[in-house]
Amino acid sequence: MTNKIKREDLSDKIKIALDKAIKKVIAETKAKNSYMVVADKKGNIKKIPAKDL
Fold first, then answer.
1. d(CA 7, CA 41)
2. What is the C-alpha to C-alpha distance for residues 44 and 48, in angstroms, rounded to an integer?
3. Do 48 and 38 form a contact (C-beta atoms < 8 A)?
4. What are the tens digits of pLDDT across the range 35-45?
């Protein structure tokens, strides 16, 4: 007996979920009038105020 498990590519679903999570974090940051800390491609850390999001 061979068990065949259907495997699907989840990368598209993961991208959609990640975009949704990022939008939620940005909305919460704006609501609290706080700031977001991000890193650029070179690894430099940047602090972005809510008004600039």
1. 32
2. 13
3. yes
4. 999 998 898 99
pLDDT digits (tens, 9 = 90+) for 13-23: 899 999 999 99
The pTM of the full predicted model, rounded to 2 decimals, is: 0.66
Scan for tokens 């991208």, then name that residue. 15
Q: For residue 35, how many other CB atoms are within 10 A of its CB?
A: 15
What average pLDDT score do residues 27-42 get? 91
CA 51 to chain CA centroid, Å, is 19
Angle at 8 between CA 20 and CA 10, to 5 degrees: 20
Instruction: Give backbone dihedrals phi and psi of 6, rounded to 5 degrees, phi first.
Output: -75, 120
φ/ψ of 30, rounded to 5, equals: -65, -40
42 DSSP 8-state letter: T
